[in-house]
Every structure is written in C-alpha cells, then in structure tokens.
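Continuing the series of single-chain predictions for the mutant panel. This is the parent chain; the variants come on the following pages.
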Amino acid sequence: MEKNPSNISVKENDDDPPTLSSQAMAALREFLAEQTHSVADASPDGDAAGDSTVSLVSEDWRLSQFWYEPDTAETVAREVLTLCEMGSSGSISGSDPFRVACIACPTLYAYLKNIDPNTRVQLLEYDNRFEQYGSDFTFYDYNHPEELPLELKHSFRIVVADPPYLSEECLEKIAQTITFLAQSGETYLLLLTGEVQRDRAAELMGLRPCVFRPRHSSKLGNEFWLFTNYNPGTRLGGWELEK
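Parent structure:
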C-alpha cells in the first residue's frame, strides 16, 4: 500500500462509469422512468442470495450504483469474515476485533451484517438513503477523499473498496481514502473494480488480482476483478498467476 498516494499526478479526464450491455441499457431507460427511492426487500434475482432478510434500497444507476449478484456478495462477505475470524483467533497479530470499512459497497455491508450482526463494519457511501444504517453509515464523497470524521482515521484492519467510476482519478482518490482509514501495520485491502485498472491498482496499492470474478445483477459490459494486497491462499481462487 502506498503511503502517500496524493503525490501521484492525476489526469484531467472525465469519470467513466461501467459500461452496460444493450439489455441493461434498455432496463436503465425503464428504470429511470419508474425510479423510486423506497426501500425494497432483495429477491433471489437481486441482493439476497435467497435470504429475504437481506434488503437494500433500489439501485440508482445515475449514481453509478450496481449491486452484486448474490454469489458475489456472499463470497466477498465470507472472505472478509474469514479475515475477522483469523484476527479473533490470534492467527493474525492484534488483540482487538477487526473493524471493517466498506467504501461504496452497500451490498457487502448488508451481507456482512446479515451473516454476522456483530461484525464491526462502517459503510462509507455518497447516497444518503443509507442513513437507515444509523451510526454504521458515514457520508462519503470520493472527490474529497479525506473529509471524514477523525475517529475513522487509521481505525480499520480491513478495507473493501468498490470505486463508483473507472477513471484513474477516482481510483487515486479512493487510494487516498484507504490510506486515511487503514491502521498502521498489517491491513487487509480488497478492491473490486474493472480489469482496466489492473496496472494502476498495482502501482498505487501493490494489489494483485484474484481468480474469482465479481458479477453484478445488472450484467455490466465491463469485466470486473477482485484485487487484494494479501495472498488469500486457496480462497477466492487464489492470486491469478503472473504472465
């Protein structure tokens, strides 16, 4: 993890949202015509993995919100909880229960709390509809990467980030936020973003891609990858072999 990502020059380019397939574009037009901000229970085709207790507000694609498929959400949540369990058992140094920061990934937050309500997790999110999560919610605008409560600074052993855009500028600012949140010493970072960010993720934070491929319910046209700064072993399919 780079300690001072703010020194990196930022290209003046527009933020590029993930590309939708033609079917998803048609759904988007219908969605925008019928958009509501009500809280909706997730379904097996949405966020719940068959568990009706997992619920989220509806996606707002105008905010580049695309929820994970159930298998993806549960796989990533289980990986985070495995790291938490390793910390609690003493397999990872540190005596306090791990705190988890979820940057712009509310689906993951919902699954973590559904599987283990005692998980210490903070959701950093731009959409104020997630204020329903009470003190677990912190408003976050990636354009101001360090404008966060001081009590969050260097407070998390696990940080999971899903940048809303695929631009270099967005990733660089997310990296600044990660540096702000991460505890000193060994911190476990998971990044879900487009394959196009592979080189930049390695340069900024020393991340490597896993074999596991995240998928979204909206069937995005871009290929998304999961990157980590630690070797997951056989979990997540392991690290992808370098070519």
